Inverse folding.
C-alpha cells in the first residue's frame, strides 16, 4: 500500500474517533485544545461541540523530539511552525469564540483560574512525563464533573505506550475516572461534588 494512502486512512480513522469523542462533550462549554498543530481538530471542535469559548494553546516551536515528523513534509524547521501558526491565526483567530495562546502548556496554565474549563483536549508532547505533567497541571482548572480528554492513547508501542501509562498512573492518585476510550482517544472525568461547579 502506498504510504500516503495508508497515512490518509489513519487520519480518517482518527477523525471518526475524535468526532465520537466530541459527541460526548457538553455543548456551549468553555474548553481548550492543547497541542493545536494545523488546527484540523480545532475545526471539528467548533463544528461538533459548539463551544462558548475555545482556547487554542500551542507553542508552535520546532523541537528535536518531533523531528521525525519532517518526513511528512510538514515540520521541517521553525519556519514551518511559524507558517502553521500564521495559518491557524488567520483561519481561527478572528472567530468570536476562539482565543489563540502561543505558549508551552506549562506556561499557559497560569493564565486560567481554578474550575475554569468544562473540558480540555491534550495532544501536545506525548512523552510519559509530559502527559502526566499536563494532566496534573490542568486538573485544578477543570470544573468538578468536567473532562480531560486526549489523543494517542494507543500510540507508541516501541515506547511502551507512554500516553496510556500516564493516563492509568494518574488515576491512582487523582480524582479522575476513565469514562471511555475510542480507539486512540481517551476521556477522563473529574470526580467532584461542588454544587457551584456541577457539570451541566
Amino acid at each position: 500500500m502506498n504510504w500516503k494512502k495508508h497515512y490518509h486512512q489513519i487520519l480518517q480513522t482518527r477523525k471518526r474517533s475524535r468526532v465520537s469523542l466530541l459527541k460526548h462533550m457538553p455543548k456551549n462549554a468553555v474548553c481548550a485544545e492543547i497541542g493545536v498543530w494545523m488546527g484540523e481538530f480545532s475545526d471539528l471542535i467548533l463544528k461538533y461541540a459548539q463551544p462558548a469559548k475555545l482556547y487554542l494553546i500551542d507553542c508552535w516551536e520546532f523541537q528535536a523530539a518531533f523531528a521525525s515528523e519532517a518526513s511528512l513534509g510538514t515540520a521541517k524547521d521553525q519556519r514551518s511552525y511559524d507558517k502553521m501558526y500564521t495559518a491557524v491565526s488567520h483561519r481561527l483567530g478572528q472567530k468570536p469564540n476562539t482565543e489563540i495562546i502561543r505558549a508551552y502548556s506549562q506556561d499557559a496554565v497560569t493564565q486560567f483560574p481554578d474550575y475554569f474549563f468544562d473540558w480540555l483536549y491534550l495532544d501536545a508532547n506525548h512523552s510519559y512525563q509530559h502527559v502526566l505533567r499536563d494532566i496534573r497541571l490542568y486538573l485544578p482548572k477543570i470544573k468538578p464533573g468536567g473532562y480531560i480528554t486526549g489523543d494517542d492513547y494507543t500510540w507508541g508501542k516501541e515506547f511502551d505506550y507512554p500516553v496510556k501509562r500516564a493516563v492509568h498512573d494518574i488515576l491512582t492518585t487523582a480524582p479522575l475516572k476513565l469514562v471511555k476510550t475510542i480507539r486512540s482517544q481517551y476521556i477522563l472525568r473529574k470526580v467532584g461534588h461542588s454544587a457551584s461547579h456541577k457539570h451541566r
Observations:
- The chain has one domain: 20-197.
